[in-house]
Amino acid sequence: MRLLHLDLSNNSLTGEVPYMVSGTNIIFLNLSHNQIRGELPRGLGDMQQVQAIDLSWNNFTGTISPQLGLCRELEVLDLSHNSLTGVLPSSFDLLNDLKNLDVSHNSLNGEIPANLTKCTSLKHFNLSYNDFVGHVPTIGVFADFTFLSYIGNPRLCGSVVRRNCQRHRPWYQSRKYLVVMCVCATVLTILCAVGAWKIQDWLAAVQEDMFRGRCSGGLSLVMKYKYPRITYQELVEATQEFSADRLVGAGSYSRVYRGTLRAGTMVAVKVLQLQSGNSIKSFSQECQVLKRIRHRNLMRIITVCSLADFKALVLPFMAKGSLERCLYAGPPAELSLVHRVNICSDIAEGVAYLHHHSPVKVIHCDLKPSNVLINDDITALVSDFGISRLVMSVGGVANPADVGASTANMLCGSIGYIPPEYGYGSNPTTMGDVYSFGVLVMEMVTRKKPTDDMFEGGLSLHKWVKSHYHGRADAVVDQALARMVLDQTPEVRRMSDAAIGELLELGILCTQETASTRPSMLDAANELDRLKRHLGGDTTATFEDIDDLA
């Protein structure tokens, strides 16, 4: 039997690839996400029948062999996230069936081979974060690729990357010298004739025209005039050309960069990945939600930049990052019990506003720690409304006709946080958010992710907590207390036991299998507010029997 499909991805493989592997009749080869070193296998060019080669996220060095052009059946070639050098072989023009070429995040240089226009099947093309030089082609298949295919190559020029190509001859030999002199004389005349305030307005208008107009094309009048205007060039400068050093997060539909505006304001620039299938829907939906909501525990929007081939949200920058980062990146003691209760209360308040007080009811659909941001005073803000639902009808059920910029064909949540009823085809409801919130609360206490495989018998996080928690001061509570720095006086210990027990019981109640038995988010927010005030020393805020919420 011949080996046709070899997938060893996502392991910890080291060393070099044996020649016998690359010289076989394999049709699909995937060695991605390992630690393989050395040069690319010499025998790749001998794989006459191979259709897909994925060697991304390894430590390959050296150059890309022109022999790869002999793989005439090749459709997918991914060499991204390695340390390859040299040029992109011109022999790739022989790959008539090539559909996906990704060599991003290497150290490749030289010019982009113009003869790649012969690869008429090419649909996905990514040269970002290399050192390519020269003019970016715009003919043939290149006409379909945006500047996102070339980010991180500062020496590329042309209309696609919005950088002028420098001419090598002296300026005084330019045919446009006389025209430039006339324009300069005209400008000087205008500057002498008008006042300073008119000059500022004129320069602002010229600047926006230079960079393809206002970054609000295609948005509603509310989005155009309610929020400050910002140009694409300002975002390029703020993020240092969207450099990898400024990247603070990435998701299915976007990348988030840290930026500094000209006024010195720190911002987070959420750039849409236009290649993702549902990205336009996600961007439109997030704009629709953010422009309608205003709450201290919900992420606010600063402005939007929307062009034909570039779309971004400009948001406040949170130096502490996401709740997931605070939970897992540093020592567990960084978040005290009081912090955790306050964060759970903040999240509940924000989502309760979406469900019960927002001008248009919103179902978030993706509550999880990575979608909660923490500001400098440890206040939590719910963010990322890319797959949320706007509910126009009463009762919390989002019918397709009621959803603005419909996201009906997008996954309603993340693995581990999705309520069981969604698996049976139910429409998103506010009770689905309550379920996700319950999983998040238990994760805050146990510091265990719902996707962890450490639970015996394959139990999910909430089922594991339900099976192990039998009241206050048991093993689950003891484990939670061990992760937090607490004053171990008897009175504080008693209050801590009770508070952790309250959180676990609330998490269990919110994750009931039947949606109708879960409390509303408003009830959960009220209970957490009492718990927060009690831990803060308010003797009038006593614990209630949490079972009364059902």
From TrEMBL:
Its main location: membrane. The keyword ATP-binding applies. InterPro entries: Kinase-like_dom_sf, Leu-rich_rpt, LRR_dom_sf, Plant_receptor-like_S/T_kinase, Prot_kinase_dom, Protein_kinase_ATP_BS, Ser/Thr_kinase_AS. Keywords: ATP-binding, Brassinosteroid signaling pathway, Cell membrane, Glycoprotein, Kinase, Leucine-rich repeat, Membrane, Nucleotide-binding, Phosphoprotein, Receptor, Repeat, Serine/threonine-protein kinase, Signal, Transferase, Transmembrane, Transmembrane helix. It is an enzyme of class 2 (transferase). PANTHER family: OS04G0122200 PROTEIN, OS09G0423200 PROTEIN. Belongs to the RLP family. This is non-specific serine/threonine protein kinase. It comes from Triticum urartu.
